[in-house]
Specification:
Blueprint: E1 3-10, E2 16-23, E3 32-37, E4 42-49
Antiparallel strand pairs: 1-2, 1-4, 3-4
């Protein structure tokens, strides 16, 4: 399968809040999205982790 499951971690509180998929053939770099963190109660940057 060309898509793989990735876990997103909040940059502020370092908690793993979200999961998403990415196409590993087209996107070689790590995913970085701005998502809502329920622990910080605001939108923060979430980056892909292992």
């Amino acid at each position: 399968m060309p898509r793989e499951l990735v876990i997103l971690e909040c940059e502020v509180c370092k908690r793993r809040n979200y999961t998403t998929t990415r196409n590993k053939k087209l996107k070689k770099e790590k995913v970085s999205l701005k998502k809502y963190c329920k622990f910080d109660k605001k939108h923060t940057v979430h980056k892909e982790t292992k």
